[in-house]
C-alpha cells in the first residue's frame, strides 16, 4: 500500500511539474488560471470588460516563494481559480515588472497584488486593513479571495456609474 501511495505521489508531482512548464505565463502559479501577458492585459480587459488582477513577484523572493506554496496547498485555491475567470489575470516576475511608480504606490515590496480597471487605473481595493504599510501585500489565499471579491464589487460599481 505504501508503495502504491508513493507511486501515486511521484506521478502526481511529475504531472504537476510538467503542467507548470507547459504554461510559461504561470511562472510557478497555477496553470489552471488563464494568465495573460502584461503587454496585452489592458486591451484584453477592455474587450472582456473585466478588471485586472496584477501580481508582481520575484523569483528569488522568500515571500513570493511562500505565496506559490500557498497556491499549491491551501484548500481554498480552487475557489480562487474559479474567481480568476472574472478577471484578466497577470503575473510579472523579475525584470518584467513595469518601472512606472503607479505600480508601486506604497513601495517596491514584493509580492504585490494590484487590482486595475479596464483603463489600467487602480481600483481602491487593497489589504490595508491587515497591512497598513504594505497595502497590496496578500500573503494568504483567503486574503486574496477577499480582495478579489471586493475588487469585483468595486469594479461593478465603477462600471455602473460610467
Automatic annotation (TrEMBL):
TM helices/strands, residue ranges: none
Protein name from the UniProt record: Thioredoxin domain-containing protein
Recorded GO CC terms: endoplasmic reticulum
Record keywords: Signal
Domain of life of the organism encoding this protein: Eukaryota
Keyword Signal (UniProt): yes
Signal recorded as keyword: yes
Residues annotated as signal peptide: 1-16
Amino acid at each position: 500500500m505504501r508503495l502504491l501511495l508513493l507511486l501515486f505521489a511521484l506521478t502526481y508531482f511529475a504531472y504537476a511539474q510538467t503542467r507548470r512548464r507547459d504554461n510559461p505565463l504561470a511562472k510557478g502559479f497555477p496553470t489552471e488560471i488563464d494568465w495573460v501577458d502584461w503587454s496585452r492585459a489592458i486591451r484584453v480587459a477592455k474587450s472582456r470588460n473585466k478588471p485586472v488582477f496584477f501580481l508582481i513577484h520575484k523569483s528569488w523572493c522568500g515571500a513570493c516563494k511562500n505565496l506559490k506554496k500557498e497556491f499549491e496547498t491551501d484548500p481554498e485555491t480552487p475557489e480562487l481559480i474559479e474567481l480568476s475567470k472574472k478577471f484578466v489575470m497577470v503575473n510579472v516576475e523579475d525584470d518584467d515588472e513595469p518601472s512606472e511608480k503607479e505600480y508601486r504606490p506604497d513601495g517596491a515590496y514584493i509580492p504585490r497584488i494590484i487590482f486595475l480597471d479596464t483603463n489600467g487605473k487602480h481600483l481602491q481595493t487593497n489589504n490595508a486593513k491587515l497591512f497598513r504599510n504594505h497595502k497590496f501585500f496578500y500573503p494568504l489565499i483567503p486574503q486574496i479571495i477577499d480582495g478579489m471579491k471586493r475588487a469585483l464589487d468595486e469594479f461593478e460599481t465603477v462600471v455602473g456609474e460610467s
